[in-house]
Design brief:
- The chain has 89 residues and is mainly α.
- It has a single domain (12-81), classed as Arc Repressor Mutant, subunit A, CATH 1.10.10.
- Helix content is 46%, strand content 7%.
- It contains four helices and two strands; from the N terminus they run αααββα.
- The chain has helices spanning 12-24, 31-37, 44-56, 74-81; strands at residues 60-62, 68-70.
- The chain has a two-stranded antiparallel sheet.
- Helix 1 (12-24) packs across helix 3.
């Protein structure tokens, strides 16, 4: 595998740092500004990989203004999953 095609696999520590930052600063930053404001520097490509993962796992969303918003709420999810009148299709 050449270095030009190798993907950047973030460490669990990096994923958790970005996750925590997104949760604490929900709706405050656009992607690039968020990357610049992280407590620890990461490569932008690695940051983008984590952001893509958080979007795919429904933990964050990007609003109409381009800001990163934390949307994951496990308590709400558990409450809805426990309702018999709701079904997942």
């Amino acid at each position: 595998m050449s270095t030009s095609t190798a993907s950047h696999s973030p460490t669990l520590e990096t994923i958790r740092m970005i996750e925590d930052f997104a949760r604490e600063h929900s709706g405050e930053y656009r992607r690039r500004a968020m990357w610049s404001s992280l407590p620890r520097k990461t490569m932008y490509q690695t940051f983008k990989t984590v952001i893509d993962y958080l979007i795919e796992s429904n933990k964050i969303a990007i609003d109409a203004g381009g800001k990163v918003c934390w949307i994951f709420d496990p308590d709400l999810t558990r409450r809805y999953l426990g309702r018999d009148d709701l079904q997942i299709r």
